[in-house]
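Hi L., both proteins are below.
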Amino acid sequence: MKLQNLLILVSSYVFYGWWDYRFLSLILLSTVVDYFIALRMAGNTNGRNRKLLLWGSMLFNLGILGFFKYYNFFVDSWVAAFQKAGFTMEYTWTLQIILPVGISFYTFQTMSYTIDVYRRQLQPTRDFISFASFVSFFPQLVAGPIERATNLLPQILQKRTFSYDRSVQGLRLILWGLFKKVVIADSLAPHVNDIFANYAEYDGGTLWLGAVYFAVQIYCDFSGYSDIAIGVSKLFGFELMSNFKFPYFSRNIGEFWRRWHISLSTWFRDYLYIPLGGSRNGKWASLKNIFIIFLVSGFWHGANWTFIIWGLIHALLYIPSFIFNTNRKYLSYGVAENRFLPSLREIFQMGTTFFFVTLAWVFFRSDNLLDAVNYISKMFVEMELPQSKLQGVGYVLILIAIEWGLRGDERLTTISKNFTIRLLFYMFTSFQVLRFFGLVQTDFIYFQF
């Protein structure tokens, strides 16, 4: 077990250091600080001292995250506010800061460890190599899923053995993740980039197409990475949490957020929403907490007002569902359970949910608020579609068709009991990945977060 974890740790540091070795010091520093804080916390029975240790961990990790990710944003916003008030300010406070890849992910991951130790839900480990492996676990280090110490650390602390069935499932997930990223997301990327960069030159129909393309691109890009990360982890004997469960088949916003970026939404639920009071103190207090969660979620994505407005829009979309108690309505398998085709009501619900989610994505994708507002204002005029932009529709339809058949089984435990269907699936996806590999090279979108 110790040699296995040492291999994981070395591999993880080489993997991350390949991008920029200088930022390995941040991961190591965060690891050392939380390792010793958790040990001190566990050995301390004084409630006040334990809370001070927890706040020390939180302030340290959030301080690093805030400096690298938000320093220039706060400086620019502060100066802009004074300038709007009539004050002229010349400043040289902004810095040329490189954002470390995945800092938002591993910061939240290590914070969950100290919080769980504080809550006595987890005993801290004295095995530094194992803990460092948990913090820097390379398959999900730079774009999630954001793993909980209560799930991943116990797996690291025990010896892993090879499992043929687990490895087959892992390779299947890797293949499907590569298909979503290389074939669909990267093929849509040039259309999305062109339409959003030149939206003023296009008609409303093309702008709708660009928004839909981006909705599909970001899903395939992000969920594709998650599938690859989960699949690679299976090869090493680990089971990570699911991060996506076919979110665009959701029937309302509440269901969407139970199926989209699950590791982040549940992190905010357990470590922010519930500590704030959750739904225990009446409707008005609950509404306040919901606003806080969605605004923080938007801010987590980046130092830009577009992300904050994106979070605010989702809060406004979620609140009616919360008020009328429909946010927890769909908790089972999903749409069209035990049926192949959805009902007309389900089609309407999915279409409406996707419509509003797609509108919100415009803010997420735009460079600034003015571009987002102008983009949306042009979406409802001159509904024409140029032939040159329809090439990506086929990729969207292929995704819908395959995912509809897979719905309810995001782990791809069984593609089909029919050998011929499984073989055709493997042949089709493998051929397409090889065909498209390298034609368009784009970084994973969530590397920037």
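That was the first. Here is the second:
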Amino acid sequence: MTRVLTDSLKARYDALQAQREQEWSPAQLAGNARQRQTLVDRLDPAAVAQPGDRLAPLTLDTVEGGALTLDALTANGTAVLIFFRFAGCPACNIALPYYAETLWPELRERGIPLVAVSPQPPTLLGEIKLRHSLPFEVATDRDNALARALGISFEPDDRPSPPPAGWIGEAIGTNSWELPQPAVLAIGPGRTVQWLQVSPDWLDRPEAEEILARLDS
């Protein structure tokens, strides 16, 4: 199956950034860029999960109230997991519909499951699936257990104690500063990591063609 992509993920993020440059103050723009650059600078590719690593038999909670084990997901071969931050994240609300349009049809044809994963509880996380009518599973990684095992979770440097009203853990319902960096994981039978692509800059995530090319290789 061949698809012609007329609106890349990069183009969608460029449009978001252009809108922010019109609406945000210079201080807001600088702060956002600084946060993303800090994560880029900190990423150590050797410190995240590597091909061949075996993961623990973890379970993800679906927003519909079901459960997905890594063993069940990979029973027939490769599965792809898309890690995102939370349902209200603007960049995630661009990425997931994009993958639904461009990546999911190809994976479905190949019989490869696709799951979008966030630490946010199912009761709050479900809104992003409903908002975009996402055709693939959306599931909760409780306490960032899987993200932590992959080495992709992080906490911001600035963590006031006690946290202020509306802090990230309160806003997304986790009561924690910890979030996953956006990432794409291909995992095979035996819960074996095939490859992991981490995007510390949440406005620079892989295009569908890149993901499919890595699966092909």
